[in-house]
Design brief:
By secondary structure, the chain is of the alpha/beta class. The protein has helices at about 5-10, 15-35, 45-55, 70, 95-105, 120-125, 140-150, 155-170, 240-250; strands spanning about 40, 60-65, 110, 185-195, 215-225, 230-235. A 3-stranded parallel β-sheet has the order 1-2-3.
Amino acid sequence: MHEGSWSLILGLRGMPAAAEEVDAIRDCALSKLTGARVHLAHVSTRGAIEAVRRAKDAGLAVSCEVAPHHWTLTDEAVAEYDTNTKMSPPLRSQEHVEAILEGMKDGTIDAIATDHAPHHADEKALEFDEAPFGITGLETAVSLAFDLVSRGLISLERVVEMCATNPARIFGLRDRGSLMENAHADVTILDPQVEWVFDAKRSRSKSRNTPFHGRSLTGAAVATIVGGRLVYLHPDYTRINEIKQQGASAK
């Protein structure tokens, strides 16, 4: 639980934004001291994003990522004590959500990470304080990013950059994250216009610990190819069959 007005209202012990921010500032300072590359995972606060922005302006090798729930939900989502809203870092207040959106727009934030953390239903069926941290996020991440595109906050190219090309660049995976000749044939086909509802009961994950069950979404990863082999088709997507038929007719 984020330390703020909602933690006070709900009577839950809060995790202050400062706890994350001092670590981010420290790590950026160590990057300056040693010349080491630093990647900050799951950034969720304004102060941490500002620390990364200052580090980049100073020419330091610092990068960071954010998770979709941290720009989609606020700490108010915890009001019903649903343990599917419990993650680490916790859902933050609106000011921190706005800072994440600013960082995505201006390029401070390099990547999107799903923070996919599956748990059995029995593990989550506890009091909020006792339940484990984490939610599933693999199947909703791209769609929640497309929501920002439809709202005009970021471009489609920026989504691809944060989901594919930047992660490959940050971790030095030169033959990944692109469609260049001789690159790995790992491809995700995106449709920014397909409309669907996320039903946790139909999730491909064995876990159902998500705060996004029943959410209407626009845009999705509709097919995944790994090593040149089709391994996933979106269950609500029909245009892929049209594309296959057109391909067959062309032959």
